[in-house]
Automatic annotation (TrEMBL):
PROSITE patterns: GNAT. Residues 3-170 form the N-acetyltransferase domain. InterPro entries: Acyl_CoA_acyltransferase, GNAT_dom. This is GNAT family N-acetyltransferase. It comes from the Bacteria. GO terms for molecular function: acyltransferase activity, transferring groups other than amino-acyl groups.
Length: 172
């Protein structure tokens, strides 16, 4: 089967929330405090979808993963302790979570490829993101996909590692 990437629908919140709850549990089992403070939650997902920022990775009828994508909309990024690679328009993604049944199949990388395509389609050539210092899986994916560490940003009192990837203008 082939993976598809599209905007999430309100009716899909229960499936998305199941995926996020499993990811929250995995972070806790890994000994991380990331996502252990009541965030994310179904209301956050609902707001993502209402502002057309919630996206799902699907295989057939199955929701494989979830993320939120925004354009130039992350106020905390202006307060980076460090330096971004660019100061132009950017796409930012948050809340990347993959279904338990699809772990280890490269789905997060596939999703990030779709996010980069989304940026290009909007004539934006910078993708920015952040993750917890102990989210080794995500940091590894950033490294493999060519994201560069740029510094630290803060969310809900916690320090996050900030990354950016500058995209090529034409993908031929």
């Amino acid at each position: 089967m082939e993976y598809q990437f599209r905007k999430a629908e309100i009716t899909e919140i229960p499936q998305i929330w199941d995926i996020l709850q499993s990811a929250i549990k995995r972070r806790k089992e890994d000994g991380s405090d990331q996502w252990q403070d009541g965030y994310p939650n179904p209301e956050v997902v609902k707001k993502d979808i209402e502002k057309e920022a919630g996206f799902v990775l699907t295989e057939g009828e199955n929701i494989v993963g979830y993320c939120s994508i925004l354009i130039n909309d992350e106020p905390e990024y202006a307060k980076i302790e460090g330096n971004w690679l660019t100061n132009d328009d950017f796409v930012v993604f948050h809340r990347v979570a993959i279904s338990e049944q699809y772990l280890g199949k490269g789905c997060a990388k596939i999703m990030m490829g779709f996010i980069e395509d989304f940026a290009r389609k909007n004539n934006i050539y910078s993708v920015k993101a952040d993750t917890n210092f102990d989210n080794f899986a995500m940091k590894n994916i950033f490294e493999k996909l060519g994201y560069e560490f740029c510094g630290h940003v803060y969310f809900r009192g916690g320090q996050r590692k900030a990354y950016e990837k500058v995209l090529q203008k034409s993908k031929i």
